[in-house]
Amino acid sequence: MNERKPISVFGPDFPFAYDNWVANPAGLGTLPADRQGQTIAVIGAGVSGMVAAFELMKLGLCPLIFESGRMGGRLRSEPFVNSPQSIAELGGMRFPESATTFNHYADLLQLERRPFPNPLTEAAGVTVIDLAGESLYARGMDDLPPLYREVATAWATALDEEAYFSELQQAIAQRDVVTIKHYWNILVHEWDDRTFYDFIATSRSFQDLSFRHREVFGQVGFGTGGWDSDFRNTMLEILRVVLTECDDHQHYIVGGAEQLPRGLWMATPECQHWPAGTSLCSLNRGATRSGARKIDRIDPQTLRVTDEYGNEHDVPAVLATCQSWLLTTSIETDEQLFSQDNWMALDRTSYMQSSKTFVMVDRPFWKDKNPVTGLPCMGMTLTDRLTRGTYLFDNGDDQPAVICLSYTWMADALKMLPLPAEDRARLALDALQKIYPELDIRSHVIGKPITISWEADPNFLGAFKGALPGHYRYNRRMFSHFMQDGMPDAQRGIFIAGDDVSWTPGWAEGAVQTALNAVWGITRHLGGKSAGTNPGPGDLFASLAPLDLDAESE
User: Fold this and answer.
1) Across 139-245, where does the E strand assignment appear?
2) Angle between helices 177-191 and 235-243 (to 10 degrees)
3) SS3 293
4) Torsion, Cα of 392, 396, 402, 405 (10° steps)
5) Where are the alpha helices (DSSP H) in 321-365?
6) CB 386 within 8 A of CB 409
7) Residues 193-229: pLDDT tens digits?
8) 3-state secondary structure (DSSP) of residue 105
9) How far apart are CA 552 and CA 292, in angstroms?
10) Which of 261, 325, 307, 285 is nearest to 515 (CA)?
11) How many Cα atoms occupy the beta-carbon half-sphere of 409 within 13 Å?
12) Is the per-residue pLDDT at 4 higher than 80?
């Protein structure tokens, strides 16, 4: 029997092998000699902006990077003041094995990765599920009562019966484009207008079960935890995640995920045009520019970016990797730069709220054994209480450790929004005390808590996109925007990228893939082309293009 190939984020909407494209020794393309050394603007120094800038630099361009906040975007690794090796991952912290293009850059920078302590995984040790006042300790699914196994079976059955799960996963693993598009296009028609909760409530496997089963699925879920914060989103959003195993086999980056964008800033790859030792840092003279505040069309070949101090930069191309709402709020963007259809898509983006609160503790005390049960005294905790998800990070038995006291979404995140860090930590510790009444967690806490609410950050306005029913058309317009040959001159030369432009919002892989789309688009806009032996996403777009519901409705 042939061993199944590994799953990667290969489609399903646009099944292009980004990982193979960036790893090909032929490179991503070439530019005309008169374009070598030209400056282009990159707005945003998150993972999407930095990957795009890194690859454009290798092609011989000079990416001028604008950043209104902090390098890294939502890869934000905050060290505790008195223990720099103890990190609070305020943004992206779980990176699946299937994120093969993101992992290409992590490997390039030789970043160490370790299994993430998700519920019911070996890395978590023990998982504690606390629902309706009852706590259960488990190392795996077999340790849980029948109700939980019934929910897990119903979910797996629903995916196979209602969503061609086995067929699609096999096709994704084999990179079988024809089969992927056959089944996925059927699902787009069936599920674009319907929610995740609709899928659960109407699936045959769940209809034979009680409401309590659906409630447990929402509170606890499987893989990374509860799913109920996503119940309002289109089912297509969930299918993309589970089909490509974004919610499974996850790792964290030792020392913090922010090392990746910062590493690309300092890296000195072999480049066309530029001398050895060139980096994004050197091309930007050691610092990013201040935030972009205005984007104008000057003439058919020139765009002007004005920063927050009024400095003007004229360039032949602009890449905006900021969240899409910022193009109508903090950045005054010339309306003619996007079609009205694309403005509709950008403005209709629906962002999810998210909050995290971390504390540092003196040691990984949770590994101490309960003298009565013989189990660890605390574990990764899923609950219906205020904290929802609590994660434990071990830096060594004799080193300070980190607890993510609370990781919440949507309404649960909004409960924390008005509160300062100390109050958030107090409420979380109060909730955990009810789950672990014999354990004095507070006695181990050292230093000040670290917290974030992404919706309160003016540079983000939310954690990431959660596409609503009917949003497939908007997503396609944003994702396909890098294909500009048929656009009016007034709309050409500005590109968009980021995870909210991708089909997999909230995952760094989507940010990287859209960054590479923009690299192809900018190269073509400036008269360049891909290597003949290494065609890019735009070269293969006609055969791989996402289903076009706009065209179908005309």
Assistant:
1) none
2) 150
3) strand
4) 20
5) 340-347
6) no
7) 999 999 999 999 999 899 999 999 998 886 667 889 9
8) helix
9) 38
10) 261
11) 21
12) no
Stated pTM of the model: 0.96
Provide the residue count of the chain.
Answer: 554
Instruction: At 150, list the tokens.
Output: 């019934």
Element holding 515 (H helix, E strand): helix 508-525
pLDDT digits (tens, 9 = 90+) for 337-352: 999 999 999 999 999 9
The beta-strand segments (E) located in 221-308 are 250-253, 292-299, 302-307
Enter the tokens of residue 81. Answer: 């003041």
d(CA 5, CA 174): 6
End-to-end CA distance of the chain: 47
Contact partners, residue 178, CB within 8 Å, separation at least 6: none
The total of other beta-carbon atoms located within 10 Å of residue 452's CB is 24
Distance CA 491, CA 472 (A): 22
Q: Which of 459, 423, 471 is nearest to 330 (CA)?
A: 459
Handedness of CA 435, 361, 390, 350 (dihedral sign): positive
Strand partners, 129: 136, 382
**Looking at residue 3, what DSSP letter applies?**
P
Give yes or no for a contact between 545 and 14, defined as CB atoms under 8 angstroms apart. Answer: yes
Mean pLDDT of the region 467-483: 97
Q: Of 502, 522, 524, nearest to 514 (Cα)?
A: 502
CA distance 526 to 521: 9
Neighbours of 551 (CB within 10 A): 8
Q: 382 - beta bridge partners? A: 129, 389
Question: Tokens 């396909």 identify what position?
Answer: 480
Contacts for 477 with CB less than 8 Å, ≥ 6 apart:
341, 342, 345, 550
Q: Long-range contacts made by residues 226-231, C-beta under 8 angstroms, separation at least 24?
A: 226/382, 226/388, 226/389, 227/196, 229/352, 229/408, 229/409, 229/410, 229/411, 229/412, 230/196, 230/409, 230/466, 231/195, 231/196, 231/197, 231/200
